Amino acid sequence: MLKLCYRSVVETGTDEAGRGCLAGPVTAAAIILPPKFSNNILNDSKQLSENKRARLRPILEKEAVSYSVCHVFQEEIDEINILNASFLAMHRAIDKLEPRPSFIIVDGNRFKPYPNIEHECIVKGDGKYMSIAAASVLAKTYRDEYMAKIHEEFPMYNWKKNKGYPTKEHREAILKHGLTKYHRKSFRQLPDQLTLDI
């Protein structure tokens, strides 16, 4: 059973999706849920089917006090690295919340402090607190939607299915077709091949 609040304040949960992908943005969401919010389906987005995530998204958007979703794209990821890009996406999502939260709970064990707002990192927080789980659902659904859109431009990579993650199919497509403008050039796109120096 997920808990609603970590503290009894105006609290936002934040989470990201797409950190381990080879292509596309890292996407973060931040959400403030109302004090009496309840939902029996809500859980860590990775534990939910695509259908359940799709059903939850309009409920969360309608019932949230405030929510925001932000993409940080591959060019910026390549400039500042994926960890910093993840923090940046979460900060930008929090920037847009109204009212301004007085406390932030973050999934994971690392976060770059947000100016003038306290935060707490919670390992596996998306399976413990509703606002983090809700943020994980929003981040995942918005990112998946974006990857399905760019799939139309480069269908040979099958991003509609693999969402840019390093699947065997995705790596084989990179080997065959090369990199696109959506690939993260700072990432190791293909595993190192064994070579024999003679």
From TrEMBL:
One GO cellular component, as annotated: cytoplasm
Record keywords, A-Z: Cytoplasm, Endonuclease, Hydrolase, Manganese, Metal-binding, Nuclease
EC number(s) per entry: 3.1.26.4
Main location: cytoplasm
UniProt xrefs under Gene3D superfamilies: Ribonuclease H-like superfamily/Ribonuclease H
Details of cofactor binding: Manganese or magnesium. Binds 1 divalent metal ion per monomer in the absence of substrate. May bind a second metal ion after substrate binding.
Catalytic EC class: hydrolase
InterPro entries: RNase_HII (IPR022898), RNase_HII/HIII (IPR001352), RNase_HII/HIII_dom (IPR024567), RNaseH-like_sf (IPR012337), RNaseH_sf (IPR036397)
Entry superkingdom: Bacteria
Cofactor: Mg(2+); Mn(2+)
MF terms (GO), sorted A to Z: manganese ion binding; RNA binding; RNA-DNA hybrid ribonuclease activity
Binding residues for a divalent metal cation: D15, E16, D107
Membership in a protein family: Belongs to the RNase HII family.
Protein name per Swiss-Prot or TrEMBL: Ribonuclease HII
Organism for this UniProt entry: Flagellimonas marinaquae
Gene: rnhB
